[in-house]
């Protein structure tokens, strides 16, 4: 059966059908290798501990969010959750802060830089803006206890998702300690490109929004001239960089789950779709959309 027919029969989008099939293939291959190598318990057990560490962290974030009455604090907790996952996996994997630079230390540093920047940026936004209206709308739609709903449907879900997305990082941390190779160098370059796009794109947007003259206008300058979502492109690119670094480790292909999940979420679930919906209400949107690439940066069309 063709993918289009499958999606139509099950009443799901093509991209979701492809994701389901890809996930099935990935899990089948990964589990088969782990069984063959008799490593399934050595991997799943420690990964569970990492998940528990992330859940405990998100529980603390939840408690703080209840105290300050800001459910959107979860957005700040998202980036930090990856740092917790990386650090927990680093410790559980019996890695050490040696004098030499290992792949494990490199990835720990990269995740730390990305997560810290994202967390600080969102905390600054939270401190100067009212609660994100998306969470207000979600809360108003719930029935029953707001605390229970928010904990399980927002914070626990995000903890599970952060752990799942961290598969690539966890794999690297559980691999034997080793120095940097060619793939590591290539991966770092890709990661830096992604970091530039995300950080510069976010900075350009903040400067644009802060100018009262731009109220209600569409941001189409700087990196936003080449892609409608330079920050999301940058985030996805960074995780592809981490995957490339993982290729220097045994069974490095396992780490491909991380960039695939992130890219899928950004393109079809939480990133681009929500942003496009908000941007479509601004004047000049149709022209901007027509000449500017959705995701991958390209020269604007004429």
Description:
The chain is mainly α. The protein folds into two domains: 39-178, no CATH class; 180-302, no CATH class. Helix content is 72%, strand content 0%. It has 13 helices and no strands. It has helices spanning 3-10, 14-36, 40-68, 73-92, 103-128, 133-141, 146-165, 167-174, 182-210, 230-246, 257-269, 272-279, 285-291. Helix 1 packs across helix 2 (14-36). The two termini are 40 Å apart. Mean pLDDT is 86; it is low at 1-10.
**N-C termini distance:** 40 Å
Report the radius of gyration as a whole number of Å.
20 Å
Structural class from helices and strands?
mainly alpha
Please state the average pLDDT score.
86
- The multimeric state of the shown protein is single chain
